[in-house]
Amino acid sequence: MDITIKQARYFVAAAQTGQVSRAAVDLNVSQSAVTTAIRDLEAHLGVRLFERRSKGIALTETGSRFLPHAEEILAVVQEAVHVVSEQQTNVHGKVRIGMSYTVAGYFAIPLIARVRRRYPGIELELTESARDTIEAAVIQNELDIAIILTSNLKAADFLDHTTLVASQRRLWLPSGHKLAGRGDLPLSVIETEPYILLTVDEAKKTQVRYWEEQNVSPNVTFETSSVEAVRTMVAAGMGITVLSDMVYRPWSLEGQRIETTDISGGVPPMMVGVCWKANTPLEPAAQSVVDFLEQTLVDRRTK
Amino acid sequence: MDITIKQARYFVAAAQTGQVSRAAVDLNVSQSAVTTAIRDLEAHLGVRLFERRSKGIALTETGSRFLPHAEEILAVVQEAVHVVSEQQTNVHGKVRIGMSYTVAGYFAIPLIARVRRRYPGIELELTESARDTIEAAVIQNELDIAIILTSNLKAADFLDHTTLVASQRRLWLPSGHKLAGRGDLPLSVIETEPYILLTVDEAKKTQVRYWEEQNVSPNVTFETSSVEAVRTMVAAGMGITVLSDMVYRPWSLEGQRIETTDISGGVPPMMVGVCWKANTPLEPAAQSVVDFLEQTLVDRRTK
DNA sequence: GATTGATATCAAAAAAACAGATATTGTGTT
DNA sequence: AACACAATATCTGTTTTTTTGATATCAATC
């Protein structure tokens, strides 16, 4: 009548390890328990979640759509269990939070929803806008905190910050591309392959920066501000790109697979963090939010 | 090792009906199944979720904190199951959404999180601000849609809308108040009892409006813009108020109980809806979001 | 075609959930 | 104080589900 939390947990473990047997070891149960849990889950949902391969399993397109939901189930359950053991959080007040667009879309909103449930006494006021605008607003006390990319803070002297996640940048390739599955390619491959450049937020500026540092000039054949467009084009074999794991999904909207490969020679990860006005103590409510975000993200795998 | 979805479902049913036996009937299981599920859940969490009373059960403070989380678990599970059965939603584009503060805090954010998971190809841009500002922005094409109180739209001629929820307004009383448990009191009781007035957003204006319609002049002893402050003051016996179920919680932050009573003679419910520029077809992405919101809210109890 | 490294299947055992009957509890009434 | 009433709690046997451990199967590679 219903899927179970256990099924979700086994599914997530299997998806993350890419192997039923390894997931079983991690979960301290037998391999057959995981296999049957996944089989029952698939039967219940009426879809195939994994492709069975000789080396393990790989998410189907449906499976990769289901994965974030399954993770969300586990997160929500954990949070529900947690909330009752905490003594009442009496913090209240208003916290004004700024987020840049990509961060909001791929990262912050689910966290914000959790903050709201956790601190019912705190009123949150959210704003999405460009990084520069947000930095300025924090400095002018128009925002209390900001969740933004912290790698290249402009007003770094006037802002304190902590990092929430460091999301690895990897090379995105269409499935079956000649470079796929090699691992540890040098960044210079983007000079010979057609390159799709994402221009949203400060993605372009960041990329240009580390190209220059490594003296690489990519062969840009298309620029777009839409992550989905990049995904579609890469999947269609129109080019390759380098983007962070935070925005990576293994399938394009059209259902074609996208692979990733590590890049050797140090492409910096994308740093997302929370920042606030330097040398100014935060209001208790804002401090609670910052603490919660740090704490929540500590035991999260960098994905 | 884990709570189960079934336990969450039974708990929610019991909390909503206020009776284990009634919940059991609704769920088509035996009363003992519900009782043991709740007992196991309480044992697992190590807290008491209900007070057992002769007429049924009532949430403890901890239980009422747990309830929204349990509901969230069920919602997330339902959504996870739903997402795999849908064929791929290819909609993409950008949708700019405006929300007023109260709506964002108590209603919209969890929905927005769901929209994001449901339509990964849609980029959402969120803005919170005052109702007037949002209406203007929609008309000037600076926002695509707005989630706001629709009872008193200012620019109603230029905006189309559909209602998402109608949240009943009820009288809030401290536990043990002489008027508690009576049911169907006339609105005129607020003339004799000290009244706490919420001033956030347009709450004040709305209240004044239906006071005038019914020729009632309340005995306002305190005004505040914080819902939590209202809750605390009512719980502490400093006055009573009339607010919608959307912002109602049975316990104050300090852990004191708040009761509600129906009001006879037609206090209008709070209408929350989504609106967009009249006579202008919505972009497909925005249309999808509107459709999703309507559809999601249809089978939700008006709480 | 044998080996390796993975998943799938099967049957028995263990654990969990359920229904139905009964006990208990708390309120209000007489 | 005893009783009736209306609810929840507990107990027991049964059914269902999950797990395990052993074995079968499959695909790639040597």
What do these coordinates show?
The structure is a homodimer of 303-residue chains. The first copy, chain A, has ten helices and 14 strands. The longest helix of chain A is centred in the N-terminal third of the chain and has 25 residues, at 61-85. Chain A folds into three domains: 5-84, Winged helix-like DNA-binding domain superfamily/Winged helix DNA-binding domain (Arc Repressor Mutant, subunit A); 88-166 and 271-298, D-Maltodextrin-Binding Protein, domain 2 (3-Layer(aba) Sandwich), CATH 3.40.190; 169-268, D-Maltodextrin-Binding Protein, domain 2, CATH 3.40.190.10. The model of chain A has no long low-confidence stretch (mean pLDDT 85). Chain A is 42% helix and 24% strand. The relative contact order of chain A is 0.14. A five-stranded mixed beta sheet of chain A has the order 4-3-5-14-6, with helices on both faces. In chain A, strands 11-7-12 form a three-stranded antiparallel beta sheet. The first copy, chain A, has a two-stranded antiparallel sheet with strand order 1-2. Chain A is α/β, with parallel strands linked by helices. In chain A, helix 1 crosses helix 2 and helix 1 crosses helix 3. The two termini of chain A are 32 Å apart. The interface between A and B is large, with 55 and 55 residues. Chain A binds a DNA duplex (30 and 30 nucleotides) through helix 3.
